[in-house]
């Protein structure tokens, strides 16, 4: 007899969604965590970032209205802002664990590692289950260059007591764009170094270049086509170099060149679970090579390459809860998934984008819209607001969109519903939305 029906390894958004889902179906569940209960998103990811970003939004909106009836300068007080963030994050681990304990989900603290015969070692105890779910997430990748010990990570940035006078991010992806935007709004001198000239590679480059221009106008410096090779410490500063002529002095340097799955010290080889560079190898039912071990969230190499995001991990948690309680044996089917980069302005995307190689251009009509003079953006004094929508010629439905504006997150969510519900242009135009809002702009996008 196993100790539990299911043991989940990792108490992030994915593992927790699976735990509560399984509990609701009557399963006996345990969840293991070696670090902060709640995982990356609420402790060192999405939520703390978005708390710091609240000030960016206020400053951005204030700056846009400077010549349109608003006076006075808003400034960030970093230590008060950090206090506000800590008021939120400090309660997450205990609150999450208490919630699980009260629900009667067994909570085991420690590093989990598989032994042979499907047993799991957690600290100095060995536990067993009929099925296991690996939900161990990812950690920041540290670029393997000379002086790599001087790199800090996004986790460090989101908990800085003081903001350095100058900061540099190496690798121009989601994390760099977002943290650079926060540091810049808070008054730091910000550099982003990237090894090619194609940042945020999943997004339409015409909109990305517009975003880069907006960030440059705010004082953020981009160093493209620089392959950093060394970091040297010089008093309280760091000197960054490539093997050509690039040299930059900075107060703090952050490795933002991607994240790596937490798979290396889990004894996966003992239980025959295969891995790829992007994570644990799973099939269309999120099952690994071992019939009793499943995996979800950031730690997996997804068959369809869906993005590694919080709502995707929770979706998979709910899916596995149903699958493991035999309610459904269907393979997982993802809806189209939106993603947003919280820069200033925001950039967002969903679905088909012929310009980044997805879909045959002949099947679609691509509409580029300049929204700057639309009432929503005129009212806010935004200098740039743009959208690119992709329509399927045959069905007259919208199948993809990319948006750049301070309202890109709201607009992409409305478009997510329109796209996933396969609404036609006529159906969208038949709705009555509250006016004037981002939603009431929808019918004019087609
Ligand atoms: C700076 C930053 C900003 C982000 N912003 C957003 C955003 O705005 N929107 C969004 O959707 N996503 C965002 N993300 C991504 C999001 O945080 C992840 O997609 C999400 O947390 C994945 O959930 P998960 O449950 O798969 O893994 P995680 O949340 O990483 O949880 C995994 C847990 O497993 C634990 N663990 C690992 N190994 C073991 C082991 N051997 N034994 C026991 N426990 C173990 C870890 O300690 C961790 O708590 C952001 C990420 C970062 C870093
Ligand atoms: N708003 C959000 O939803 C959000 C925010 C932050 C993070 N995330 C999640 O976390 C993941 C990781 O974010 P990230 O920004 O760390 O990774 P990323 O994959 O988005 O970007 C990393 C970038 O670093 C570049 N790079 C790689 N090697 C390099 C080198 N040697 N020198 C310079 N640049 C190099 C890559 O080309 C890439 O553009 C995201 O893909 C996403 O899944 C999401």
From TrEMBL:
Gene that this sequence comes from: gshR
Family note: Belongs to the class-I pyridine nucleotide-disulfide oxidoreductase family.
Name of the molecule in the record: Glutathione reductase
Domain (FAD/NAD(P)-binding): residue spans on this chain: 4-317
SUPFAM superfamilies documented for this protein: FAD/NAD(P)-binding domain, FAD/NAD-linked reductases, dimerisation (C-terminal) domain
Record carries keyword Flavoprotein: yes
Keyword Transmembrane in record: no
Protein residues bound to NAD(+): 171-178, 258
């Amino acid at each position: 007899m196993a100790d539990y029906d299911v043991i989940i390894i990792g108490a992030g958004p994915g593992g927790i969604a699976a735990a509560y889902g399984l509990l609701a179906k009557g399963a006996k569940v345990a969840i293991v965590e070696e670090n902060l209960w709640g995982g990356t998103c609420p402790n060192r990811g999405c939520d703390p970032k978005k708390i710091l970003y609240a000030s960016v939004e206020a400053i951005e909106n204030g700056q846009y209205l400077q010549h349109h009836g608003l006076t006075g300068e808003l400034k960030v007080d970093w230590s008060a802002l950090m206090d506000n963030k800590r008021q939120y994050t400090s309660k997450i681990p205990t609150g999450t664990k208490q919630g699980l304990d009260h629900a009667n989900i067994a909570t085991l603290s420690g590093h989990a590692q598989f032994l042979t015969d499907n047993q799991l070692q957690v600290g100095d105890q060995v536990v067993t289950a009929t099925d296991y779910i690996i939900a161990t997430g990812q950690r920041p990748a540290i670029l393997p260059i000379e002086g790599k010990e001087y790199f800090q990570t996004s986790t460090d940035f989101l908990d800085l007591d003081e903001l350095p006078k100058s900061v540099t991010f190496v690798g121009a992806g989601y994390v760099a764009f977002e943290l650079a935007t926060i540091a810049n709004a808070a008054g730091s001198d910000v550099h982003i170094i990237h090894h090619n000239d194609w940042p945020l590679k999943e997004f339409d480059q015409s909109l990305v270049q517009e975003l880069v221009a907006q960030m440059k106008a705010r004082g953020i410096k981009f160093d493209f086509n620089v392959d950093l090779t060394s970091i040297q410490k010089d008093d309280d500063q760091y000197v960054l170099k490539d093997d050509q002529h690039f040299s930059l002095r900075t107060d703090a340097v952050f490795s933002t060149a991607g994240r790596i799955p937490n798979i290396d010290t889990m004894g996966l080889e003992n239980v025959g679970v295969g891995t790829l560079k992007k994570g644990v190898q799973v099939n269309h039912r999120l099952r690994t090579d071992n019939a009793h071990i499943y995996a979800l969230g950031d730690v997996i190499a997804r068959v369809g390459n869906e993005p590694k995001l919080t709502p995707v991990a929770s979706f998979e948690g709910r899916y596995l809860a149903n699958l493991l309680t035999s309610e459904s044996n269907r393979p997982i089917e993802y809806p189209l998934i939106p993603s947003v980069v919280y820069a200033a302005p925001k950039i967002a995307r969903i679905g088909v984008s012929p310009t980044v190689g997805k879909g045959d251009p002949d099947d679609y009509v691509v509409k580029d819209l300049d929204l700057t003079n639309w009432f929503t953006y005129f009212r806010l004094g935004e200098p740039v607001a743009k959208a690119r929508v992709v329509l399927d010629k045959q069905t007259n439905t919208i199948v993809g969109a990319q948006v750049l504006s301070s309202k890109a997150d709201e607009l992409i969510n409305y478009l997510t519903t329109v796209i996933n519900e396969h609404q036609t242009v006529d159906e969208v135009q038949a709705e009555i939305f509250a006016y004037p809002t981002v939603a009431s702009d929808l019918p004019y996008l087609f």
